[in-house]
User: Fold ZP domain-containing protein from Soboliphyme baturini.
Amino acid sequence: SACAIPPAVQCTPFGINFDFITQLPFDGHVYVRGHYRDLQCHRDCLQVKNTTNSFQIPFDRCGLRKHRKMNPKGIVTSSTFVISFHRIFVTSVDRAFYVECFYAEEDQIALPVADLDTKSQMPMCSYHVVTSTPNGTVEVTFASIGDEVAHKWKCEHEKSVDMYCMVVHSCSVDDGNDASFEIVDKDGCSKDRYLLDELTYFDDLTAAVRSNVFKFADKAHVHFSCQVRLSLKKEYEDNTCPVNLCINFIIIVVLFQSAVG
Assistant:
């Protein structure tokens, strides 16, 4: 058996509905990857045996990933659904589907009329993991432990270079289940320089850092996510974006310890 058509996804206020149709009556399993043993994240269809099947997961279970998006403004939730046709084993006909839902957020902030610019928009920010090859820099799709890669963040807008400051902060890595580790704090400073050094800002809206690929023990995937904070230059003295103080703080501590010793 196999899926007759691609699954249909409904993004509801309470969670994600995942509907699929099979060529023959389905008596296998559908579940969220990494949560097979959680009854709220796994449906056994042996007693049903329909060609049309539906599966729902709530927002607060099954490791549903959430992250904020600034342009357009809202929340993105994502998960991977697996349709397994065999009762016991994973086989070549099984299918996995990565699902994303976007929930738009209305901006209800009131601004003085004098400050309102109807033509202004927030910068578009992007994040990429890249590596160097003989043919130049390419985006990484998969990597092995120890491979050297570069994490790059960039925000772009026709006027943003003169208007905004960017700070990358609150970065965390997780295995898609329950294991999570904060690697960059809320101020944008590395919490484990063995895994990830301090970020380098090449201009007000571009940052990058090199690292070697790592992962959790006995896990095939690692999810890396950060938040980007944008602020107006006019909020700072001389309309200049503040510099990253993490490295300066480390140097001061080292010098102080050396002087005491």
